[in-house]
Amino acid sequence: LQESEEGHCPVCQEEWKVGDTQRVLPCNHRFHNMCIDRWLKGHKAMCPLCKKD
After folding, report:
1. Which side of the chain, N or C, has fewer Cβ within a 10 Å radius?
2. Nearest to 29 by CA among 5, 12, 13, 52
């Protein structure tokens, strides 16, 4: 992130901070890179929020 963005990572529940790296899935949900990478390795390759592949 370059500017402070409201909200938080749905996986770790931490607020977004300037400098955080995000991954945006095809469904447009945003996560910290490390959080979603861990999630996708441990679960089916789907969004933890909407369950889209």
Report:
1. C
2. 52
- Reduced to 3 states (helix: H, G, I; strand: E, B; else coil), residue 49 is coil
Domains of the chain: 1-45 (3.30.40.10)
What is the C-alpha separation between 9 and 30, in angstroms, rounded? 7
| pTM listed for this prediction | 0.79
Three-class DSSP category at 10: coil
Q: Is 41 helix (H, G, I), strand (E, B) or coil?
A: helix
**pLDDT at residue 5, as a whole number:** 58
- pLDDT tens-digit readout, 9-33: 999 999 999 899 999 999 999 999 9
